[in-house]
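Hi there,

I know you've been waiting on this one. I reran it after we fixed the sequence typo, so this is the corrected version. Both the input and the resulting structure follow.
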Amino acid sequence: MPPRTRERSETPDAPEEENEHNPKKRHFDEITDALAGNNKKQKRQSRSLLRFVGLFTDIEAVISKGIHILEDLEDAELDEEVIKMTPDERNAIVTQYKKIVQLIPSIKEDAQFYREDPDALCDLIRYIQKHAADGRSDDLGTLKPKASVVGHIIRLPGCYVHVASLMNLIPTLIDVENAKIAITADDYPSFLYSNEAQYDPNDIEKNLLQGTYLLAVFRCLFTGPRTATRKTSGPSGGGRPSKAKIYKMTKVTPESIAYAAVLARFSICGQDSWEPQDGMFSLPDFYQAIVDLFDDPTDPWYIDTLAWWNKYVVSLFVTVQQEIIDTFVSDKYLATTVRQATPRRET
């Protein structure tokens, strides 16, 4: 429940009796009461915002500006801060705002009331922010314990390591700790690549975003933990409905792939709590780098990659081999990580 920022006030220059019979005021009261109460539908919608709109979406900026840009353009009554925005900045706000209202339609339906009362808009934003963060926290809580027991993994400062590769990794870990090797967001982790194909340093997009671990994480998040490592195809059985079913997902999007990739990376790193920055590795930059890969819908890589994801996810009947997943931190996997990172950084 969002903290109340003010006591509900009466419409200026209108007696209390008139407000009680004013449909407009009565509807406003219903909106604010809903925010103060347990609105399960809006709560569920808000919890999914970071998954489908953008993991690092500035919810306050997008809603507070978008709700005026789309409604006030013809009236030329835009906020001074909005007027100073470049066309690209304004378009970015509008694009994300449209995604948010598609997910939470009541924002657009009640936009007039929120524009008339900034405090009510503030309540709305704080409500959505809280439940969006709760949704991310729940996803991290689902992944963290599962990722740490895949294969035989032990924890070292900054990462989780397969025990069989510990001795081979020690020199590299020391170089990373001493900043001789800098791993940043433009160094794609090896788990983003297919386990069944050789990494090609001359074509880094080849087999990119087709990693078995990444796929398993995505399925764990969106189609349910039971589907992540299934050895046979078919329905996952009873239990709670998956997020894919609840939110009626019909296709995989770049944003949902990037969301899974960031949470997958966080789940096998050494961070105990959610932080956007892990040393020199920026999670927002990592997220954006993945989304930016899909900047051209006519690019064959764009088409083929989304087709691959939709083949293995949308049907919800994917066969994921456990023995392949167990190799995501194998000697071959870790050697690939070192081989990718080392040539791209000065020692």
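Quick highlight: The chain has two domains: 16-135, 148-344.

Best,
R. S.
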